[in-house]
Amino acid sequence: MMIKDKVVVITGASSGIGAASAKALAAKGAQVVLGARRGDRLDQLVTEIKQAGGQAIALPTDVTKREQVQALVDLAVSHFGRLDVLYNNAGVMPISELHLLKVNEWDTMIDVNIKGVLYGIAAALPIMHQQGGGQIITTDSVAGHVVHANTAVYAGTKFAVRTIMEGLRQEESKHNIRAMIVSPGVVETELYSTITDQQTRDSTYHNQRTWGLKANDVANAVVYAIDQPANVNINEILLRPTPQEH
Ligand SMILES: NC(=O)c1ccc[n+]([C@@H]2O[C@H](COP(=O)([O-])OP(=O)(O)OC[C@H]3O[C@@H](n4cnc5c(N)ncnc54)[C@H](OP(=O)(O)O)[C@@H]3O)[C@@H](O)[C@H]2O)c1
C-alpha cells in the first residue's frame, strides 16, 4: 500500500508543517487524523480537506497529556479502521540563552518535543504490532544535529528525539515498523511565535520570511517517505533552505 488509503495520524496539525502535510497527504488519498490544541484551526483544515475531496477527522489534543495522545491514535482505528502512519510533528521552540533562566520554557520544550513524541510511540506501537507493521515519523530539526548559543535546550530536545527514533528503528525493524525523522532547517511557520525573547523572536521571524523553506517543502519530504514501498525504510531526510549555512 502506498499513500492512497493509508490512515495517518498527525500531531501539531493546526499550522505549519503539520497542516501542510495533512493537506498534501489527503490530496494523495490518505485518510488523515489531525491533533493539536487549537480545535478551531483543526476544524477549518478538516473542512478544507473535505471540500477538496479528501478524508479527514480531528480531535483537540495536547501532546503533553498521554491520555489525549492515546485518544487521538485510538480515533484513527475507531473511525478509519487502522493506523498506518503516526507523524509526531508537534513542537515548540522558545529559544533563549540559559542564563536567562526561562526554566518553565525548558520544561515545556521537554514535555512537548520529547515526551509528546514518546507518548505517540507508546500509543502507536501496540496497534502496529497487532497489525503487523506501520511507520512512525517525527519532525526533528537541523537543531538535532547542530547546537548554537541560545538553542541549548531546544537542540537538546531534538538531539534526544533523533536518538529515540534511531533506537526505535533498531528495535522495531523486526516488527516491520519503519522509523524516520525529517530534519528541516529554517521553515516559514508560526514556530517563531513561541519565542518570548523579543530580539531573538524578531530575527528568527525575519530569517523565516526572507529565506526559509515553505511548510510544503517539508511536507513533500514526508510524502516521499510514506510513498516508498514497504521494503524501503527512509530513516532521515535533512533539508535546509539553500542560503542556510549552519
Ligand atoms: N519552522 C522551523 O524553522 C522548524 C525547523 C525545524 C524543525 N521544526 C519543527 O517542526 C515541527 C512543526 O513546527 P512548525 O514549524 O510547523 O511550527 P508551528 O506552525 O508553530 O506548528 C507547531 C504545531 O505544534 C502544535 N503544538 C504545540 N504545542 C502542542 C501541544 N502541547 N500539544 C499538541 N500540539 C502542540 C501547534 O498547535 P497548537 O498550538 O494548536 O497546539 C502547531 O500545530 C516542530 O516539531 C518544530 O520543532 C520547525
UniProtKB/TrEMBL annotation:
Keywords for this protein: Oxidoreductase
EC assignment: 1.-.-.-
UniProt keyword Acetylation present: no
InterPro entries: NAD(P)-bd_dom_sf, Sc_DH/Rdtase_CS, SDR_fam
Keyword Oxidoreductase part of the UniProt annotation: yes
Any matching Pfam family: adh_short
GO molecular function: oxidoreductase activity
Enzyme class per UniProt: oxidoreductase
PANTHER family associated with the record: DEHYDROGENASE/REDUCTASE SDR FAMILY MEMBER 11 (PTHR43115), DEHYDROGENASE_REDUCTASE SDR FAMILY MEMBER 11 (PTHR43115:SF4)
Protein family (similarity comment): Belongs to the short-chain dehydrogenases/reductases (SDR) family.
The name this protein goes by in its record: SDR family oxidoreductase
Organism of this sequence: Loigolactobacillus binensis
Taxonomic lineage from the root: Bacteria, Bacillati, Bacillota, Bacilli, Lactobacillales
